[in-house]
Design brief:
heterodimer; A: mainly beta; B: alpha+beta; Cytochrome Bc1 Complex, Chain D, domain 2; SH3 type barrels; two-stranded antiparallel sheet; 7 strands; 35% helix
Chain lengths: 525, 254
Amino acid sequence: MSKLLTLCALACPLAGQVGYERIAAGASEPASWLTYSGTYSGQRYSALRAINHTNVARLKPAWIYQTTDLNQFEVTPLVADGVMYISEPPSNAAALDLRTGRPFWTFRRPVPSDVHTCCGQVNRGLAILGNAVFLGTLDAHLMALDAKTGHLLWDVTVADYKQGYSITAAPLALKDKVIAGVSGGEYGIRGFIDAYDPASGARLWRFWTVPGPGEPGHETWAADSWKTGSAATWVTGSYDPGLNLLFWCTGNPGPDYDGGPRGGDNLYSTSLLALDATTGKRKWHFQFTPHDTHDWDANHVPVLLDGAWRGRSRKLVVNANRNGFFYVLDRQTGEFLAGKAYARQTWASGLDERGRPIPLPGTEPKPDGTTVYPGIHGATNWNSPSYSPETGLLYVAAREEGTVFYRATAEYTPGNYFSAGGMRGIPGVEPSGSIKALDPLTGAQRWEFMLHSPPWAGVLSTAGGLVFGGAPEGNLFALDAATGKPLWTFQAGAPVYANPISYEFLGKQYVAITAGRSLMVFSVE
Amino acid sequence: MRKLALSLLLTPLALPAATTGEALFRTHCAPCHGPKGDGGRGSNLAVRNLLRAPDDAALSVIVALGIPGTQMPGTRMTDDENRQLVAFVRSLGRAPATPIAGDRANGERLFWSKGKCGQCHTVGPRGGRMGPDLTEIGTRRSPAHLRTSLLEPEAEVPETFAVYRRVIFTPDNFLQVRVVTSDGRQITGVRIDEDTFSIQIRDYSDRLYSFAKDELHELQKDWGKSPMPGFRGVFSDSELEDLIAYLAGLQGAK
């Protein structure tokens, strides 16, 4: 099969048709990288093993592609049939020749000067389905581009960017739908998850992550606070084709630091939602941080795995949360099975038997500051985790960083920053980070590799027994997946704000990741 | 006369903005830059020309995004608030400077002779590289801050940085480190740069080192420590005034 694909790649490099069946069976096609997390399971694992502990020390750049934009280059590339599909900041896209990194096509789209983004004008990637790739934009449009030419096929307005909405996440392509989430949690948006028809761009359903009047959960918002409740959906979710369930995490409630005006649990902020992919109806939800006041979005990719849970096999979803706790849930029912702090946290005495945190007094933001771990960026963030079926370990890029949280008051005006407070680092403490290997059934730590500062790069595990990651000081690295021992490092010369992937081309395995303005592709000679 | 007319025209317009700008300044800026903006842990903003912000547009960007590689964080606010804060910060530099009493020329003599400050600090082309470069110190730090630094150096050593990083280099704060190599050599110096796998150090004899961390037996970071001696009791009160006058007058390369 891979020989055939390879031949096709040379003879007809842009003939790729990435059907749903190929994505759903992505685990058996490790030469490609067909969806944001590699497969629908969110595992970000490559079954390729040509690069392994015997040769990884000789990993060298094969080619480098540079974007011209000054914003962070956060893309997870897609790879299919000899072509790499990328998004570039602010809202551009390109298709690159896998042999050389030279573009087959580029798609440039100017962004209005008044778009609102909390954290840079970034984009984390594309989705591919059939003959199209799908791009979300900072002015909250969703677009389909012809995968062979980059020509615009359709363009729909997902939301009004002047209200603070934007799209930074890679869309997720299912059988007959493209799922899109929105950013804007610091602008008092009302969050939602949308499904669109891949052929026409028609909207098929919308799930509001802040329930309106009469809907269950609406009572968890005091007065009119639901209207600016945020719960953005800015990290690409996972999908279980067997259950036809979509797993998508939600962000902080708005305003971030002042919980006063929004009394209640503030559903479905900081939650994991399981939605019926056909209808967009909620099957279940699990809220990690009820009534959050520390900007702890639940923005870690939900990882789907099947495990022996107390003697019987169960379909699980696990999540290392920004709030410092690791969670194991039954993904059919949402039942809480286990939870454990996996990084330093000072805000809760633990989780109760249903997984609800037990907050400690005095940890709420105050006008004169409250010091809390994890900090504003959480114990981890959007940068992806990885699960290796081979080692049975979950790998998480973790942050050891507290914050002094300040509470203020904020008046909502459409499209303007709406956080009601601020933050600063803790005097006298230099934050650090680590790559942690966790037992995915308990959260128990198996090993830890310390990083000089908190990472913004995700991790990739491979059947070669390796874990790839990156550091803010520009170090790319490969660790032994069993022990955490570093086996390869490369100084890329700029901070790494991205997730690695792996693919095969002409019989050779590659690892790709961005650093600074460079997309770098590595292989062993 | 023309100048006077201009300021009369501007003042009534600037006033309401400065009132809100002042409130924003108290909340976001004063903790580091001081209630009057004349510096503390953060630089002196009550100056006519801000080195990093030659115009209002540049200042606006710094308020929003911070200064990568320093302790200065970005602060998100509405466009209108940003404008008002920028206007207020600009107004700080228009206030008449408090005259400094000391004798600058004598301060300069003390700096290079009795104080031996030039052994570690650079002014223009002259001096040592161990301590912070003082060529522009008068634009960055207020006289009160300079006094504290001279009497209790460790009170003013930055303790950490924790800003959202967009650069790979270590911020230009001062950190003394001590290492013991695996073959037993001991080196004390200033951290120049550091990442997960390596650290670069300048020792007190001005030698540069690069170490792979896994080859070090020990790596000790002396947060908040300074090798600079305190000058309480070393200088007389009037000498101290002279030295402060000299330092406050250091406004950058001529």
